[in-house]
Amino acid sequence: QKEVEQNSGPLSVPEGAIASLNCTYSDRVSQSFFWYRQYSGKSPELIMSIYSNGDKEDGRFTAQLNKASQYVSLLIRDSQPSDSATYLCAVNSGGYQKVTFGTGTKLQVIP
Amino acid sequence: DTAVSQTPKYLVTQMGNDKSIKCEQNLGHDTMYWYKQDSKKFLKIMFSYNNKELIINETVPNRFSPKSPDKAHLNLHINSLELGDSAVYFCASSRNPQGTYEQYFGPGTRLTVT
After folding, report:
1. Contacting residues for B109 by C-beta, under 8 A, at least 6 apart
2. pLDDT of residue B1
3. How far is residue B30's CA from residue B71's CA, in Å, rounded to a whole number?
4. How far apart are CA B7 and CA A97, in angstroms?
């Protein structure tokens, strides 16, 4: 089982719709969870971090964490073509000495 | 001001050569990383340094040798380059090594080995 799993996509949504990106992780003691966005040819940049069960909202983005199910998700409301990118889920693991990235989900927002 | 910078941005070289990539961060962070991102976009950690000390070495061939002269700099030297080393190499930094804070990435170095 991979440490951090994401559906590679592409996930296609129409402009204005809600995009839902999912991530599961294997290390039960993980405490820190991150979503990064990576545009083609660019470096990853942080969108959201979440540490507690429940929802965390920031503008059009909502991160959801369920530690019992080892599941973290990212919702993007009112998706825009500029949201088209690869979204990387990252989880701290290995006795908290490293962060492991998922393989990323490619999101395409269709105008 | 650039938070995490890398040089060079592009590196094209032949098999068997030795090359270096330099990284600097001006964020005052204690921890720096090297990642390799292959053609399938998987971002894999290679090394992690905390206050100049190596703390993660992820089964990377010993042709790769990182060096951290101080906590703001982390360089990567690669000997005897192979075709499979072609990838984008990202440097990153964070406040601590425990993974409790976000990482800030440099712009990446695209290495092409021919």
Report:
1. B6, B7, B8, B9, B10, B11, B21, B88, B89, B90
2. 67
3. 6
4. 27
Distance from CA of B90 to the nearest CA of A (A): 8
- Considering only CB atoms, A44 lies closest to which of B45, B101, B105, namely B105
Euclidean distance between CA atoms A107 and B22, whole angstroms: 32
CA distance A21 to A73: 6
What distance in Å separates the CA atoms of residue B102 and residue B86, rounded to the nearest whole number? 27
B107 vs A88: CB contact, 8 Å cut-off? no
Q: In residues, how long is chain A?
A: 111
The answer on pLDDT for A95 being more than 70 is no
Residue A73 sits at the chain B interface (C-beta within 8 Å):
no
B97 contact residues in A (CB cutoff 8 A): 97-98
Distance of alpha carbon B35 from alpha carbon A104, whole angstroms: 15
Q: Give the pLDDT confidence of B37-95 residue by residue, as tens digits.
A: 998 888 999 999 999 899 888 878 999 999 999 999 999 999 999 999 999 999 999 99
DSSP helix/strand/coil, B39: coil
Q: How far apart are CA A19 and CA A23, in angstroms?
A: 14
Q: Collapsing DSSP states into helix, strand and coil, what is residue B84?
A: helix
Q: Look at B43 and A45 and tell me if their CB atoms are within 8 Å.
A: no
